[in-house]
Structure formats: C-alpha cells, structure tokens
Design a protein that fits this description.
This protein is mostly helical. It has helices at about 35-45, 90-95, 100-105, 120, 135-145, 150-175, 185-220, 230-245, 255-260, and strands spanning about 5, 10, 65, 85-90, 125, 130. Helices cover about 45% and strands about 10% of the residues.
Length: about 260
C-alpha cells in the first residue's frame, strides 16, 4: 500500500512501512500526559504502536495513550514522553499493567518498542498472520493477541489492496513503455489518452484505497471479534503462564498487587 492519511487529509507513512519510530525532538514538557497526544499521533504515523492498525482503518476503535512501563509499576514515568506509546484501545487494554521482571526482560521476554526495536528483527508476515522472530516478538504477539480475527482481516485487506496497487502500477509502466511515435497514426491519439487516464487513476489510487479501508472499518470488521474462550485464546494464555513460570516474580505493577491483597 502506498500511504495513509490522517484526519486532516495529510499524507503520512503507512504503519506497515516504517521499521523504527523516530520521535519528535524538543517536545514540550507537560505534567499532564494527555497533552502529548498530538505529538504521539504524528510520531506513530496515526497508528497503533503494537498492532499497527491505523486511525483510518479503525474508525470504530478508540485510540489511547499507553504507558510502556505501567504507572502502577513506575509512577515516576507517568508524564515522560519517551515512555508513552500511541495505541489502539484493544492493545492497551490487553497490555494493561503487565510488567515483565528483570530476569525475563534480560532473556528477551518483554514488549516490543517501536521507537527502539526494529520490526524486521522481531516479526515476520505469514499471509494475514504475524509470526515471531525473537522472544520479544513472541511475548508481544502472545500477550496482545496480535493474530486476533479483526487484525487478520485488516492484514488480508491490506494484502489485497497492495496487489491491486502493484497491478495498476505495472499496467501504467507497460503503457508508458509504448513507443507512441511507432504506432499507426490512428492509434497514437488513443494510446496517449489511455496513458493519461491510467496516470490519473494512479494518482487517485491512494484516496480510493483509504476509502476502502474506512468503509471496511465502518462494517463489522473491528467489532466482530472471537468469543473470549476460543482454543487459540486458551493456548495463548497457557503460553503466557508457561513464560511467567520460568521467571518467578511480580509480572504486574504494584497497583495490581494491592488490588489482589484487598480481595
């Protein structure tokens, strides 16, 4: 796919294309972390830091500010810009206050950081699914359920649109390679018209792709999720428990501990 657009219509890099987030320099310091939202939207290409779904694709899904290190574990980082991620509500809710202990992190079991980790070193695409290339990739995919049905549908749609884009571009290249001056005079005008029409189509393709994604988001694409107790979800939870069992310690922030004590 070529590019995405933000709510104002400005072109931005696609979530599927960037391999390392570069944060805006000289961001003002705020005590209220919510004021960083506009900077986060820009820096994260208007997409989720974890599943890469874009605002254009997820009109039915709210975007939030995630604390990479949860506030319940490290309250001193509550309003530190470099600790903030732009995330869809689904990924943020699944991540919650998970806080892998030092031993697990040292061995690679931690959440992926798109501003420090390169996507290509931790994930690979397998059709509409995403697979891991590292322990960080494994933990992130498992904990956030990055192969949930809605995301697979988004990726399938992206693949189809990418193929469509490539097909049209290939056709345009073929038309442009035509040596018009060598054609029969009666065909020269038609060939020129075909080339112009094809070029105009290519210029409109980005907008049309964006509209398809918006239409898909307005359908049941996002809200039609699997039931909570599927076999895949059970396996995912078992995998998380297995990893947590390898590294004894507190896997959630202090707020979670206090809550459990009250119960």
């Amino acid at each position: 796919m070529s590019v995405s657009k933000d709510a104002s219509g400005d072109a931005v890099a696609p979530a599927t294309g960037h391999d390392l987030i570069v944060r805006t320099a000289d961001v003002p310091v705020y005590s209220d972390y919510s004021k960083y939202r506009r900077y986060l939207r820009h820096d994260f290409y208007y997409s989720c830091a974890y599943c890469t779904i874009t605002e254009a694709e997820a009109e039915a899904l709210r975007f939030t500010i995630d604390h990479y290190e949860p506030v319940s574990a490290m309250p001193e980082l509550r309003a530190v810009y470099t600790n903030l991620m732009y995330a869809c509500d689904e990924c943020n809710a699944r991540k919650g206050d998970l806080f892998p202990p030092p031993g697990a992190r040292q061995d690679g079991y931690r959440f992926f950081r798109p501003d420090m980790d390169r996507t290509s070193e931790h994930f690979s695409a397998q059709g509409s699914a995403v697979s891991h290339k590292s322990k960080t990739g494994f933990y992130t995919i498992t904990a956030l359920s990055l192969n949930r049905r809605a995301l697979r549908r988004i990726r399938e749609l992206r693949l189809r649109l990418k193929l469509c884009d490539e097909y049209v571009s290939e056709g345009i290249r073929a038309l442009r390679d035509i040596k018009i001056d060598q054609l029969h005079p009666e065909l020269r005008a038609k060939a020129s018209r075909w080339i112009k029409e094809a070029s105009d189509l290519n210029e409109r393709l980005i907008d049309e792709i964006n509209e398809v994604l918006r239409a898909a988001a307005r359908s049941s694409l996002i809200v039609d999720e699997e039931p909570a107790d599927t076999d895949d979800d059970t396996l995912r939870r078992d995998d998380l428990k297995r990893v947590e069992g390898l590294y004894p310690g507190q896997w959630r922030g202090r707020g979670h501990r206090k809550k459990k004590k009250r119960n």
